[in-house]
């Protein structure tokens, strides 16, 4: 049933060009009525209009210096080109100097109506339906910009639309004139210029484009002449100020960016670079064909001269100009509310011609309107607005481009039949002249008919000869192309083969380089190390005067005696003492009780519950937003070994060792004395938080988790009161003995985290200058040399005397190795070297100062001055430390290795692992290809079609096509062809790499790793002593270690030996690739753990990936082959057993046995404690990532037997 006449008419009005006859008058009426309603009902909001009128008043009075066009009580100086002043001079006359703004509002209402009509005409020219004009009258923000603010933006945009209308009507000079007038009002019009200039070049040639741009510049020069004659620099710097920075408070598009970032020059340069990149991309690939055709496209369009433009060209011109503007909008440093008028009318056109989903086209204008009506702008509205702009730019990439609109040369289509081609050739060979000649001859003499037939026959023969020549030339060209194609494929294969060989040579070189770096990096004087430095000038370490004196030392000694008397007290009694002391200093003191549900340890019993005490000293100079934390744990890391104050006969007595750690007597006394002293200092610019935590690490973990709002599972802790300050720096004091000989700076955090190196360097500089030149080190020096003394003994055996500088360098190198191994050890185990590690998790630059117990010469006086100077340096900061290094390897207090060098060790190994994995993968592809070729060759040789060229990378479907064609050629008409085809197709399928089975094995390894992690007692139980339950774990561990062999037996029983070997090879390939990816990711997070796992995984996989066993030989060499197979089988089993050495399950079993020492057991206990209590990542990484790799290597080795 056909639609009714009203529906047909409605469709015609809404969707056809006929509808514009009604839409344009309706648009004018609606604009006038709505504008008048807005003017009458909504009061005018003064923002810049009176300033514009006042600037025009100064111009009318004769002021021509642009630097002085700054009226009193205005919103700022004139920052717009000359035409802006001319326009608002008219409004100055119309409104009596701004006293009566109603006439100006009516003028802007007329401008709004004219603007809508111009946009509707543009829509009509490019074929948009009349219904598209409806959104033009529905924007609340646009009415506000035109009628209630009367900015200059709508006037400039109106002139741009007029220029575009003139351009699509091929009135380019008039278009340039209008465009330049718009540019003379506001500089944002320049955003349209890149697209318009490209369009002018395409449709008017190089001369037209140059004249277009030149006319714009000339008009600008004429408009600005009154001001440039007076002071051209002042005019250009004000009217076209490209470095102008806007206020953060008015931005609409970047509200979610921090103000410091918004105002930074780096942010502005980044947006400018993005703008240029986007323009270049659109210029190369959408606006022109340079991206596909190269410079010849420019040469082809140099002399274009379009007299008339069709609708496709008009669409392209508008889309190009609008896209150029939208790109500028996206990359604008700041958008104010009036800038919405820059592109509101362009959105419907761009969405109409884009290839975005319909739902996006419908929702985008509504979302934009919402974003521009949120006042003031919020982070959410800015983010949504940015997303809309990004979608709009992406959609603009799909609109018609200039290159696509240019007509392409048509290709003549010829018939396949010879006679038709001959007729075509004859029909194009002066046919009109020949027909006239024939007619004249027929009319003059009938005997010429025979001559004409003979002539036509000759011409036909010549045409056939030309056709034959054309075909021969075409065949020769095709043969040449086929030869070139084969040569290109062969060249690519040779290049790939050469690259593969070079990569295989590169693999051991990278491993050797990594090992060489391991030995070179620790040397403090190697070229890869650098001298330490304090990068942040505000720190000024050691420059501030400190006031800590011996009166404070006496008080600290008294506190130390009190703390000593509490060595056997309960946690509550200790907390009461600390609480009372801090309360007596007038500080705000609080307690925090905590309890751990699971300690995760199986050796000794740490304090699983306790009470922390903390106090806050408010500084009157600030509002409490920033703070520095000073903390001391009740227990020290020192357990009492080598006690300098113990009797000589008890130095090695095990009874003097406290496994929980000695009481941190003087560390706690130092914090209490410093709290009393520093709370009286009024020159600090940050609050001080003093924390006395229970236990060694447990208490400060509970306090920091509650303070920073990151509770962990198994921890129950009271919330922290009086928090909320941003903690930038923290320092922990570990001072267990009466005096000390040196300071040990502990800076290693959890999972390889490090503080900003300026913190470490500040402490080192202060210790050298303020505190009497105390020695500072990064680890306890061993009394026995493991390098220098053996080398000296070896030299003495051969009668060689080492020079003094050689001995000095050997000592330096050994110390560097010890320092590097110390930091790497903490990184591998994931442990923190002190309580400071919990602060580093929350981006707080923190360290622990450990006073090495000794009989002197340093004590409270030096420690107090050191801490006071450190607090003074941190108090100088106005922002967080960010200049110096965050990743480094410290060799001594004066030398370090930057991360750019140390990260090369795991990265080189990662590349080598990845190359090895790819080599195994492509080796299996080579095997698959050979098997497929064998299937084809079993059918014999057949002639190939001359045009048949084997693909560069033949696919399985290509081989199937070849198989089918060979059967059709060899077995034409034979019965049973289909069945044989199926059998050979199955053989081809079997030649594929067994990826599914391999992935199943990979999944099995991952499940085993997850199971081990969930049942951690498989790894860590039984370290404290054997029990009946712990003895049962021996069977579990043995079962896991034997599981790869069992899986290998199951797999080999379900497939052929060859298939099992291929699965094993692919397993090893996947293991190599997994290891490479794991190391690459870890290297930027924890380079120590990454390097350790890389070395272990590479060794395990290198053992597992030995040559697979050779296939069985013929019967003539049966005895020799049996012997070789037996040897190869044993070697394969040995490889699988050797890989077991790199399994963490194996080492857990060894440590559980009598071979495990006490120190190794305590190390494992520390690792698991840090995982279960403090969420260190080493155990999960080993179980979920490294263990599956080792299991895959074992299984692959067994399958390749």
TrEMBL record:
Pathway: Protein modification; protein glycosylation. The keyword Iron-sulfur does not apply. GO terms for cellular component: GPI-anchor transamidase complex. The chain crosses the membrane at residues 20-39, 107-126, 146-168, 175-203, 209-229, 271-289, 309-330, 495-521, 903-923, 995-1013, 1033-1051, 1063-1081, 1087-1104, 1133-1153, 1173-1191. GO terms for molecular function: dol-P-Man:Man(5)GlcNAc(2)-PP-Dol alpha-1,3-mannosyltransferase activity. Gene3D superfamilies: Zn peptidases (3.40.630.10). Its EC number is 2.4.1.258. Keywords: Coiled coil, Endoplasmic reticulum, Glycosyltransferase, Membrane, Transferase, Transmembrane, Transmembrane helix. It catalyses: an alpha-D-Man-(1->2)-alpha-D-Man-(1->2)-alpha-D-Man-(1->3)-[alpha-D-Man-(1->6)]-beta-D-Man-(1->4)-beta-D-GlcNAc-(1->4)-alpha-D-GlcNAc-diphospho-di-trans,poly-cis-dolichol + a di-trans,poly-cis-dolichyl beta-D-mannosyl phosphate = an alpha-D-Man-(1->2)-alpha-D-Man-(1->2)-alpha-D-Man-(1->3)-[alpha-D-Man-(1->3)-alpha-D-Man-(1->6)]-beta-D-Man-(1->4)-beta-D-GlcNAc-(1->4)-alpha-D-GlcNAc-diphospho-di-trans,poly-cis-dolichol + a di-trans,poly-cis-dolichyl phosphate + H(+). Its main location: endoplasmic reticulum. The keyword Transmembrane applies. Residues 450-487 form a coiled coil. It is found in: Endoplasmic reticulum membrane. It is an enzyme of class 2 (transferase). It is a multi-pass membrane protein. Belongs to the glycosyltransferase ALG3 family. Dol-P-Man:Man(5)GlcNAc(2)-PP-Dol alpha-1,3-mannosyltransferase that operates in the biosynthetic pathway of dolichol-linked oligosaccharides, the glycan precursors employed in protein asparagine (N)-glycosylation. The assembly of dolichol-linked oligosaccharides begins on the cytosolic side of the endoplasmic reticulum membrane and finishes in its lumen. The sequential addition of sugars to dolichol pyrophosphate produces dolichol-linked oligosaccharides containing fourteen sugars, including two GlcNAcs, nine mannoses and three glucoses. This is Dol-P-Man:Man(5)GlcNAc(2)-PP-Dol alpha-1,3-mannosyltransferase.
